[in-house]
């Protein structure tokens, strides 16, 4: 979708904002004994805001971060790290 016209970017950005607002409102109303929910909701909100940032800055959602470390003068060590929000769904 990153190569398509811009309406998809703004559509999914709006969904991310709406979901973040709704989940933040839910988070503000949870009871003291709902500790697991109090941990889970901010993680979901963080994933939605991370995706929102990627959509607005890059135009698409980044799944992996690539790191490269020079080793000597001619070699380098490269590895990728899967973003935590994607680890649960892929």
Automatic annotation (TrEMBL):
Keyword Transmembrane on entry: yes
| Top-rank taxon | Bacteria
Mind listing the UniProt keywords for this protein, alphabetically? Aspartyl protease, Cell membrane, Hydrolase, Membrane, Protease, Transmembrane, Transmembrane helix
- Annotated TM spans: 6-27, 36-53
Cross-referenced InterPro entries: Peptidase_A8
The record ties this protein, via Pfam families, to: Peptidase_A8
On whether Membrane is a keyword of this UniProt record, the answer is yes
Report the leader peptide range. Answer: none
What family does the entry list? Belongs to the peptidase A8 family.
| Name the UniProt record assigns to this protein | Signal peptidase II
């Amino acid at each position: 979708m990153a190569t398509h016209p811009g309406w998809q970017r703004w559509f999914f950005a709006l969904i991310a904002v709406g979901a973040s607002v709704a989940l933040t409102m839910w988070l503000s109303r949870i009871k003291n004994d709902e500790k697991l929910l109090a941990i889970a909701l901010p993680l979901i909100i963080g994933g939605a805001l991370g995706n929102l940032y990627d959509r607005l800055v890059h135009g698409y959602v980044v799944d992996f971060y690539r790191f490269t470390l020079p080793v000597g003068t001619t070699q380098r060590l490269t590895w990728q790290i899967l973003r935590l929000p994607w680890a649960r769904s892929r």
